## 1
Amino acid sequence: QISNHQNNENIASAMKSKAESVDIICNEFNTSNNDLSNLVNDYQQNLERAKQIHLENRAKPRQQHNNLLLQELQIMQDKIDKVKQNEKTLAEARIAAIKKQKEDQEKARIAAEQQRIAEQKRIAEQKRIAEQNRIQQQQQNNQNQNQNQASVPQPGQIASPAQSSISVLSSTQPGAQPGPSSQPPQLSQIPQGPWYAHEAELNKTYTHYKNMWKQCGQLFDKFENDNGKLYDDLEMRVGLIVTSISSNQKSVFDAYKRYKKLVNETTKPGTIERNFCFIHLTVTIIEDMRIIKQSAQKFASAYFLSFIMMEYKNEYVDIFKCCFYNKCVFTIPYINKQLRDVAMKLPNHNPLKPSIVRCQLLGYKAIKDEKREPTEKRKYLQRFKKANNAGLSIWESEEDYFNRTHAICGLFAAFMGIRNNNSFSNPIGIDSGDCWKWIAHLLSLPKCVYPELCSILSGIVEIIGHDMLEMYPRQFPKILGYIVNNIHGQCDESTATRGKAKRELALFIKQVSKDTAKNNGKLTIEKPKESKLIKKTVGAAALSIVRGY
C-alpha cells in the first residue's frame, strides 16, 4: 500500500509537473500568437501605408501631365484665337480692297465715258469742218467753172473727196506706212479699204475663233461651278501629263498613252469635259516655259500634239487652231487695222513706236499689279500715260513678248513640219498647203510689225526651211529673198530688242549662205538636230554602270 501510495504521489507529481509544462507551453503559445498578431497588424499597416505612398507617388506625375496638357490646350486656344483674329483682319482687308477696286473701276468707267463723249464731240466737229470744207470747195469749183465759161462736165469727170482718198490708198503698196503731215486728216480722208493683202479673209477667221474662245470660256466657267471636283481633277492630271513630256520618244509616247486613257475613261465625245481636256492641254503646252528655253522641247510637244491630232482629229482640229490663234495673233496672222487708223487720225502717232494701242492689238500681256513682277524685270516693263492723266498703263517688256511669240510660232511651225505618212495625215502642215499659206500671209503684213516678223521668221525658217525647200524648190528661194531684202532690210531697230531680232535673222541668213557655199552653191537649209528625238533618256545609274564607277 505504501508503495502504491508513493506511486500515486509520483504519478500525481508527474501529472502536476506536466500540467505546469502545458500551462507554460500555452502561455508561450499565447505570447507567440499575440506577437504574430501584432506582426500581422504591423505588416498590414505598413502595406497600407506603402500603397498610399505608391498611389501618392503615381498621382504626382499624372497631375503634372494634366497640368502640362492644360497649358498646351491653353496655348492652342490662344493660337486659334489669334488665327481667327488674323482671318477677321484679312477678311476686312479683302473687303476694303474689293471696295477700293470697285471704286477704281467706277472712276475708270467714268473717265472712259468722259473720254468717249469727248471723242464723239471731236469727231462731230471734224465732220462739221469737213462738210464745210467740202461745200466751200464745191462752191469754189462752181465759181471757177462759171468764170472760165467751161462746159458742163460729164458724169465721172469730177472725183469726190472719198474717191480721191480711195485712189490714193489703192496706189499705195501693201504694208506702206502713212507719211507725216502737218495737220490731222479729216474723217472722210481715212482709208476705208484693206490695209494689207488677205485682210478681210484673215479678219473673218480671227472673228470666228475669237467668238469660239469666248463661248468655251463661258462653258468652262459653268462646268467649274457645276462640278468643281472633276474640273480640278482634270486640270491637275492634264498638267502633270504635260510636265512629263521631255525631249525623247519614250516620254512623248508614254504621255500620249496616259492622256488617251484619261480622256477615254473620264469623258465622252462631244462633251464639255472632253473639250476642256483638249483646250487645257493645248494651252498648257503653249504656255510651257520650256519651249522658250529649250529648242528640243518644241519638237517633243509638237510630236505629242500630232498623236492627239491623229487620235481625235475631227474633235481636235478646230480647238487646236482656236488655242493657237488666241494665244498669238501671228499664227493667224491678223493685225487689226485700228493700228493704221490711229496713225491716220493722230499726226504725231507712229505705229512703229511702242504704244498702248500697239500693245493691245498685238497681244502684249497687261500688267495689273507691278509689285507681283520680279524686281529685276520691273525696269524693263513698258509704261504709257493714259489719256486725260488717268494714270499709267503697264505692259510686259518687248523682250518677253518677242521671246514668247518666237516660241509659240516655233511650236506651231514644228507641228506644221510633221509630214504625212501611212498613219498620220497632218491637216495643218506642209503637205496640206497650210504652211505655205501661213508664210505668205506673214510676208503680206504691214511694215509696222517687221521687227516682230524678224524674230518670228528666223525661228520658223530654221525649223521648217529644209522641208519647205524640198517641197517648193523653185518658189521657196524667192520667199527667202523677200525676207532678206524687205523684212530684214526695212526692219526698225530703234530698241535693243528689235536690234537683237534683226541680228538673229542676219545670223541665220549667214549660216544658210555658209551651208550653200559648202554645197557647191546649191541653196541648202540644214534640218535642226533637235527635230530627231532620242529614243529615251539615260538615267544617272545607267551612266555610272557604263563608266564603271
## 2
Amino acid sequence: PTNCILSSSQQQHTHQKTLNLATMAGFLTSKLRSTALALAVSLILASNTNVHGATTLVDSSGALNKAIPAIPTTGIVALLTSPGTTGSLFPSGDGVSVESTDSGVIIQAPGATLESATGLATGNGAAAAGSIAGAVILGGVTLADAEVGLANTRHGRTLAELFASVVRSGKKGAGASLIVAVQGDGTDGGVDAEAITEEVEEIFESIAVAAGADVSLEDYFKVDAIMVKSSDDVSSVVSKASSAASGSSVIGSDKSFSTAFADIYNEINNAQTADPTPVAEASLACYDAYSRASRTSRAKISMLKHRVSRGHLVDNFGPNADSLMVRTLDLFDRDTMSAAGLPIAGEKRLEMRAKLQERTEKAIRELFVAQMSILEKLTLKKFNNALLRKMGKDNEDSKDLFENNAAALRTAAFAFEAKASTLEVPGLSLSKSKAVQDMAGKLNNALMTFPDSPAAKIKAMKKVEQTVSKQKKPSEGSIDFALDFVAMIRPDGFGNLQGFAGYQLGPHSVTVGVHNDADDPQVIASFGGVRPPFIRVQPKLKLDVEL
C-alpha cells in the first residue's frame, strides 16, 4: 500500500527509513517513484508526532471493519485523497484508515473516480470520513482541475457525496473547515481561491436543491483554497487543518467513534437515488445553467480585471459591459425556459437569475469605479505635466499662470469627459456625470495649487541653479582695445544749463557734456580764482586681455 502505517515498534526507525526511501527512489520505475514519494510524504507528516497505530475502517472492497478500537471523537481531520492524480503530494491508499496521533485523529480515505460506480470509487468512504471530521482536506486537485471546474472532475463527485451526506444528517452550525489543496505545477502561478469557493458553493447548492433542503454551504463548511508545491506545504496544510479541528467534535456525546462512522457509512450506502421529479429536474437544470453562465461571464471579467489591474483602460468598456450582461442573462434564460412554468422551480429560477445578475453587475461596477479612478489620475498627471512644460517655456508670474492656462484646463476637462463617455454603462445606471463634476473641481484645485506644488518648486529651483551656475564657454586667448573720448564744454553762465550726449561704436564711445557755470564763484574758487577752461578733453584707452 502507498500509505505508511507506523506501529509503536517502528517509531525509532522512522528517520533511517526516510533516508532509505530517498536512496531507493533513484532506481525505481516511474510508478514506483510515485509510491516512494507518497511513502516519504507520509513519513514527513508523522515525523513530528507519536503515531499510536493505524486501523483500517473500510477495506478496498468497501467492506466495513467491525472491530474498530476506541478512537477520540475530537480533533478529527479527514484527508480525502485522489487516486487519479499522478505524482500527488498527498499519500493515497485503497481503503479508509484512521490513525491517532498526539496532534489529533487523521482519517485517510480515497475520493471518487469517474471510471467506476461501485465500492469506494463512488466516494462513499470519503463522504463518511468528511461527515464526522472537524476539518476536511481535499487533496490531489491539480491546476487543470481548477481551470475546467471542479464540478466536471472526480473531485466534484467526491464533494457531491460529502455534501449529500451532511445535508441528510441535518447538523447545521458545525462550521467544519474544508481546505481545497491545489497542487502546483512548478510555475509561479497562484490559485484563484474565490473562483474555487464559488465552484464548491455551486456543487453544494445543486445537492441541496435535489434534497429539497433550504440550506447553504456556510451552515456546514468554511471553504479555503491553498496552493501546495512541496512536502513543507503539505505539512503546513495538515497542521492548519489539525488546528481548525482541535477541540471540536461533530460526533454527538452519546456515540463512540466506531458507532458514528459505521452509522454514517451504512446510511450513505443505503441511500437510494430516486428518479428526479420534474420540479427537481428543472431546479437542477437551473443550477447547471447558472454554472455555465457564471463561468462564461467570470472568464471575460477576469480578462478585464487583469488589464485594469495593470493601470490600463478597457477600450469601449461601456458597450462591451452592456453586451456581456445581456449575453449572460440570455444564456441563462435560454437554458432555463422549461422551469419558468413550474411553481417551485420557477421561483428558484428567478432567485438564481437574480443572483447571477447581482454577481455580474457587482463585477462590472467594480471595474467601472476602478477605471474612473485610473482616468482621473491619468488626466491630472497629463495636466500637471502640461503646466510644467509651460512653466519652463514662459517666465510667467502666478497671475499670468492662472489666466493663460484656462484653455489648458478646459482641454483637460473635455478630454476626461470624452474618455469617460466610453466607460458609461447605461443599463446599470453607471454614468459619467458625477465623475465629470468631481474632475472639474480637482483640475481647478490642481491649477490653483500648482505654483506651490513640489514639482513646480523643484522646476523653479533647477532653473535658478542653472542660471546661477552657468559658466562661460571656453574660448581662445585674445587682446582687445577700446577708446573712450570724453569732452566737457563750460561757457559763461551761472550753472542754469546742463546736458550730455553720447555715441558708441562697437567697443569705442564718445561722450560730450555742456555746463554754463564758468561765472559761478564756487567754480572759480575751485580752480584757484581763475575761470575754468572753455573745453576740456579726456581720452581713455581700455585694454581687455583674455588668456
## 3
Amino acid sequence: AMSSTADLFSGLKDDSSAVSADVMELFASGVKLDLAAGGAECRAEVDDLVRASVSCSAADRNPDALIVDVRSPGEFSKGHVPGAVNVPLFTDDERAKVGTAFAKQGRGVALVLGMKAVRPKLSKIVEEILHRARAKDANCGTSPHECSSKPSVVYVHCWRGGMRSSSVTWLLLHAAPPGSLDARVVRGGYKAFRRFVLTRWESPRSGSTLTRSSSSSSIASTLSNNSSVLEDNANNANNGAGSSGANNVSGHLVCKEPRVCIVGGRTGVGKTAALLGLRNAGCAVIDLEGLASHSGSAFGWVGRPPCQPTSEHFANLVAMEWVRLAEQINKAETLTETDEASPSSAWGWIFLEDEGPHVGKCSVDPGLFQRMRMAPLVVNVVAPRGTRLRTLVEDYAHDSHRSDPSWRDAMDESVGKLRKRLGNERAEALRLKLRDGDFSAVADGLLEYYDGLYDKHLGTKRVEKREKQKGFKGHERGGDGGDEKQSGENAEGDAVDLQATPATSEKETLSSEASARAGKVVECRAKAVGHRDDGGAGKHPDSLDVDDLVGAILKTLAAFEAEETPVA
C-alpha cells in the first residue's frame, strides 16, 4: 500500500538514519506494487516515448509531454532520446560504484549504497522535474485549443525501466498535489528505445505501426488516498483484458513507409542548398549533415558546431526525424484523399543527400545506408565548374568563417590531413594558395580528388564490396545482422538486406555506373544565377540558382513517377 511505502521512505530519506538491505528491498517492492496498482496510467510503452520525442523535437513544437532521463550524465551524453532532459539520479562515479557493488556484493548492498548516494539530493531532483512540468504547462500555448485541461505527461526512464526510473516516478506522484501530475515509467527504458531505432531500417516496409498514446488521467489522487487501489485496479485490469487488444488495434496509426529520393552529385554542386530549398518548398527532407554537425569532408567542420553527436545519438536523431516526416506524409495524404487539390508529386518521398557510411565521425546506421543505396531514384546534380567553385568558396571561405581567428590554421591543418592522398607536392601547393587567400584555386585543386571519390561512391566499387559481404555473410546473418550493431561501430561491415536486393535480370540491364543502385540514376543540371533576367539580383553571376535547382529536382521526380508502371 502507498502509506506503508511512504512510511518506509520517510525513514530512509533522513540522512542520519541507518539503511539496511532488508528495508531497501521492502521499499523497492513497495514502489513496484504501487506503480503496478496504477496499471496503464503509471506505465508507458516505447511507442509513447517515440511520439513524445517527435513532439518535443519538432521545430514548431508545442509539446504536451516532458521526457525525463534519470541516467547518469555520461550515459546521457553517449546517446539519449531526442527532446529529453537529463535529471540524473547518480553521478557517473556514483553509478560506477553502485554497479560494482551489485556485481561483486549483490543487489541488497547496491540498493543501500544507491540510497545513501541519492537521498541528500532527492528533494532537489523531484523539485527540478516538477518545476519543468509546471513551466511546460504554463507555456503550453496562448490559444485555448493549444492547451489541454489535463497536465502534461511526464515520461521517466532510465536504462531498462528499472529501479531508478520507478523510484523517481513514485516520488513525483507522491510529492505532487492530487491530479496535478501525470507521471509514467517507460517500460524497457532507453534500451527499448534503442531497439526501436536499430530496427527502424531492417528492411523497406510497406507499412509501419505506432500505437496512439492512450489518454489517461493522473493517478496521483488515487495513490494519495488509502483506498483499496490494488483490488480495484486488479479487477479493472481483468475486466478490460478482452477489450484491451481491440482498443490497441483500433488505436494504431498505420503508416505507409515513405520512399527515398537521393540528391547526389559531385562536391560543390549545391546538394545541401538544394535540400534546404526543398524543405522550404514543403518537401520532407532529412539533413544528415545538419544532424551530424558536419559536411562530410575533411573540411566538414566549417560553419558547424564544434562538437559532433556520438554515432549512437546521431542514429537516434535520424530515426526520430524519419518517424516525424513519415507521420506528416501520411497525414497529408489522408487529408488530400477527399480534397479536390491533388497533392504534390513530392508527397510520399523523403529526400536525403547521397552520403557515405560516415558523416565526419558519425556513422550512418548500416540499415539506413542500405536503404539509401536501394533508393528508387537518385538525382545526380551536375553543375558548371565555375558554379561549383563559387559554391565551395561561399560554403567554406565566406567572410563569416574567415572572421574566426582560428579558421585559417584549421583549414591549413585540414589540407595537411590530405597529404597522403594528394601527395606532398600538391598538398603544399594548396597550402600556399590558402595562405595567399586564393580560395578559388584551393577549391579547384581539390575538385579532382573529391570528384574521384564521389564517382566511386556513385559507381560500382562499393556495391561490389557489399555483394561479396552478402555472399559470405548474408545467409548466415539473415541479411539483417548489421542492424544489431550499435551505431557507434564501424559501418563498413553492415549486411545487405536480401529482401531489398533487386532481381538479377533487372540488375543486368543497368549500366556499370548505375549498377551500384537498385533504382534509377537521373542527371539533373544546376544553373548559375547569371542566366536569369535579373542577373542574380546582386549575387555573383556564378552563384548557384537554388530555386531553379529545386524546381528541376521536383520535375525530375514528377517525370520518374509518370514513367513508373502502375501496380495492378
## 4
Amino acid sequence: LDTLIAAENLAMLLGKRGRQQDAVPLSLRVLEGRQNVLGLDHLETMSTLYGHAMLLKSLGRHYEACSLLPRVVSGRERALGTNHPDTVAAWHATAVTFQAMGQYEQAEPFLVHVRNACERLLGPQHPDTLRVARNFGELLVCLDRKDLAEQTYRRVLEARREIARQCRRPQQRPVPGPQEQRSSPATSQEEEEAQRGAEEAEHTAAHALGELLHTMGMWEEAERLLRASTRGRAELLGARHPETLASACALAQLLASGPPEPPLGEGEDAARQRHKQRHDEAERLFLRALADGGAAWSAVCPTLLPSLGHLTAAELSKLLIKALEDKEGVLPPEPEDTPTFNLRLAAVLEASGNVQEAEPLLRCAVEDRETMFGASHPDTLAAIGKLAALLRKVGSKHEAERLLRKALAAHEAALGADSREALEAAGELGALLQMCGHHRDAEQYLRRAARGLELRLGPAHPSTMSAFASLGAFLQETRRDDEDARCEAERLFRRALEGRQASQGLCHRETLQTVRELAQLLKDQGKPQEAWHLYRVANAGEGAQSPPSAVLDFEDGGSPSVAGGTSNASISFL
C-alpha cells in the first residue's frame, strides 16, 4: 500500500505540472493495485478511479472517462449516500464530461441530481447552488428548452442581484476593541473582495440572460441587460478584460442583427438613421473587441463583415489600432503581440473575401511565431494550420499539403500519433489529398481520423462527427459504383446527423450541410422519397421559400427535381 500511495502522489504531482500523459500509466497502476488489494467497492479504490477518470478527461479522452465515472457514482451512492459531497462531485464530473461530448440528454439527470443536492444541502441562495443552476440553464439551452432556461436564468439573476445588494449595504457593527481594530483592515479587504465577487457574478448572470433573450426575440430587455453587463464589467474588470469583451461582442451582435420594431409614428428617415447609429455602434464594439483580443468576436463577424469587406489590410489595420485608443490614449499593440494581431486581421480579411490581403499577413504570423516560439510550438502549428486552410481555399494545394504534413509530424512527435491534435491534422490532410485527387492516401488519413477520434473523444464529440461526415463525403464522391461504400457512407452521414442535431440543433449550418449530403446520397441510391423529405427539412431549417414557379418532377429512376431547374442539388429540390 505504501508503494501505491507513493505512486499516486507522483501521478498527482505530474498531473498538476501539466504532464498528464506521464501520469496516466502511473494512475492506472495504482488503480489496478488497489482493486487487487482492497476490492472494487472500497472507497480508496473509488477515489483512485475518480482521479484516473479526471486525468483522462483533462487529456480530452472523454469517452474513456465516461466509461469509468458511472462506476464511481454508483459506488459512492452505495457507500456514502446521496448527500455526501464526494457523491455530488462524482455526479457533477459525469455531467460535465457528457456535456463536453455533446451528449446533453445523458448529462441532464446527473446535473439535476447536483442541483437538487446543492439546494438541499447549501440552500437556494448559496453561490455554489447558483453556479450549478446557471450550468443547468446552459444545458437547457443546448437541449433547445429555452423557456425553462429563461426561468432558470431569471431566478439566478434575481438571486445574484440580492446578494450584490446585501454586499453593498453597510453593515452595522459594535465598536471594535483593540484586538479587533488590529484585524479590521483584513476584514475590510475580505468584504471588498466579497462585494467584487458578488457584482461580477451579477454581471455574468445578466450577460447569460441577455444572450438567451436575444435568441428568443426579446430585443429590448436583451439590449438593456447586455448594456448593463458591458458597462458593469468594464468598471469592475477593465475595458480589455475577456469577459468585458465578450459582453461587448454580444451587444454588438444584437445591434448589428437589426433594430427591434420601430416606435409607432416613426418616419422612414428616422428609422433609417436609428438603424445606422446602431450598426455604427456595433462596428465600433466589434473592432475594439477584435483589436483587444476578444475571442468572442467571431460570433459578430458574419453580420458585420459585409461593411468591412471593401477595406484593404492597411485600412483595416488603421481602424483596429484606432479602436484601441480610448479616452486615456491607449497605445497600439506591443511588438511581441504583432503575430496575434496579424492573425486576427487576416481572419477578418479572409472572412470578408479579401484573401489576397490575408495571405501575406498569415505568412508573416507563421514566420514570427517560428522565430519567437520554435517550429513545434502549439501557437506556431495553429498559425500553420490557418495558412494551409487559406492556401487550400485559393488553390495552392501543394504548398498547403507540405504545411499540413509538417504540422502533422510535429503533433505526432510532441503529443503522439493518437493525440487529438494529430488526429484532427490527419483529417485535414485527408480532405486536402481528396481535393488533389490522391484518393488512396486521402482515405487512409480520413479513416485514421474517424477511427481515432471516436476512440479518443467518443462518437458524439463534434470533432468525431466532423470526421464521420468527411469520410462519408469522400466515399460518396469517389466510390459511387461501390454498393458497400455507399452503405458505409450512409451510416456515417446518419451518425453525424444524429449527433449534430442532438448537440447543435437542426438549424445549425453544419447540421443542415449533413442533411443535404445525406439527401444527395439517398437520391443517388434511388431513394427519392426520403431524399425529398430531407431536402424539405434542410430548406425549412434555412428558412428557404419554394419559388412559386417550381414544379416537382420525376426523372429516370424516380429522382425528384424541379422542372427547368439547375444541377445544384441544394436548389433542385426546393
